[in-house]
Amino acid sequence: MHRFWNRLAKLARDQRLRFLAVGGTNTVVGYALFAVFDLFVYAAVPFGYLLSLVSAYAIAIVLAFVLYRRFVFQVTGRVWSDFVKFVSVYLVVIGVNLVTLPLLIEVSGLNSLVAQAIVLIATTFMSFFGHRDFSFRREPEAES
Question: How far apart are the first and last CA of the chain?
């Protein structure tokens, strides 16, 4: 049993696995919000899937910031500057999403929920590298 807990602790120290766990949680929440907005709130609106996308991102960004900051990158200080940088990464990600989603729906004829699931695969990688290398990047501490 001791070996199990040691292995679990080792896995918990791996930033990539923490990112996958938090990112997976946030992706499920964001996708569920997108589905609810798309199916029930903006269903009758032309290009309502774009409004659904923006609405879902607005909520999911706040959740993601708290979870990534606390559990994945484990940084302290500079909350507001981190948040501004975090949102700027998501602005790039949502920009890609806003361009790709209509192409998949209007040109390829995919259902909005299927199209968004496809886009999520690419944007997940974009967000990881953006947050790791920009949003929560800290300079190494100078050695004494």
Answer: 41
Predicted model pTM:
0.78
Spatial separation of the C-alpha atoms in residues 22 and 24, rounded to whole Å: 5
Which 3 state secondary structure label does DSSP give 89? helix
Query: 73: helix, coil or strand?
Result: coil
- Report the percent of the chain where pLDDT is more than 90: 47
Which residue from 29, 6, 34, 24 is spatially nearest to 71, judged by alpha carbons? Answer: 24
Distance CA 99, CA 18 (A): 29
123 Cβ contact partners less than 8 Å away, ≥ 6 residues apart: 93, 96, 97
DSSP 13: T
For residue 84, give the amino acid letter: V
The 3-state DSSP class for residue 45 equals coil
List the chain domain ranges.
2-135
